[in-house]
Design a protein that fits this description.
single chain, five-stranded antiparallel β-sheet
Length: 96
């Protein structure tokens, strides 16, 4: 089984600002997952330059990593548990 890479960073969803968490097989897989969630708006730059890699984030304590995307609104971020908004089942799998 492939090892998942963990990411966290800002995420705009449904015109609301929040924080996102991704578990993916690679940078390219993380970009694909984010593209599917937000419609492919410059996510390569977001993942490569602005998201923290190899960092699940304190907000995700107690959540076992599995391929997908989680999100929490900035309105409720502190103390709220992020919701899994995409489980990654429809995305193309990394060919490595």
């Amino acid at each position: 089984m492939k090892k998942l890479k963990l990411y966290n960073g800002r995420l705009f969803l449904r015109e609301k600002q929040g924080h996102g968490y991704i578990a993916a097989y690679s940078d390219e897989d993380a970009i694909r997952l984010l593209d599917l969630v937000v419609g492919g708006r410059g996510n390569r730059t977001e993942i490569k330059k602005y998201w923290s890699k190899d960092a699940w984030g304190n907000q995700m304590d107690g959540i076992t990593p599995s391929r997908g995307v989680w999100w929490v609104s900035n309105d409720e971020r502190w103390g709220a548990t992020p919701s899994k908004i995409y489980d990654g089942t429809d995305a193309a799998k990394e060919k490595e």
